[in-house]
Amino acid sequence: MKTLFLVLALSLSINISFAENKKDFPMDVKPPKGTNFKGSLLSPIEIVKKTRELDEDCDVSKPRSKKQRLSCEKTKKFLTSSCNQGNGHACFQMSFRYLEEFPYGKNPKKADALLRRGCVLKDGESCAKLGKKYQNGINVPSNIDTALKYYNESCNTGYAKGCTGVGSLFILGAKTKEDKLIGLAFLKRSCFEMKESGACYALADHYEKSDNKKLSKKFRTRADAIYNGDI
Question: Under CATH, to which class is 1-17+122-231 assigned?
């Protein structure tokens, strides 16, 4: 774990104070700069919005009519073009569409390749998904070091769930007090600054197991508020 932390510290340029009540952990979480391609300039939210517009008639619950197939092809063309132009989230959106028979035919290898391309293009959600795959051994051999690497890359793009993944793995595999404090630092960063409910729930569970009911209640209350959109 100490070796892994050194790698993380160098890549994130972080200088963590291990004080348990510290909220500000200076990490490099700035989003990557866009390129000159129109498709790659769209944000993940814009990609999802545009995809939903094009996907209006591409619904697996409906009969597969000609209109439906044309709608699916328009979505495929838009996402493929955007992915090829350097938009990582477009690659991510395409990746899970190859995990089912409809609309493009089940192709796990292509889905994985698109996910990896999305991560290379600094899409935090793609990297976090890869981290989860390696953590749980989903269609790949389980490898915690590789999972941590991808969660770290995700966190470094500013994707909160990536930071939560880093923190959770450090606490899960903690062999020293330092490991645990590193994990808590990442989780608190994600919970307080990035408002990620999963991190707050993880902190609540951690403090409950540590028999600190007061802190556990504090983090669970914050997690519920974030989850319900009250913060």
Answer: mainly alpha
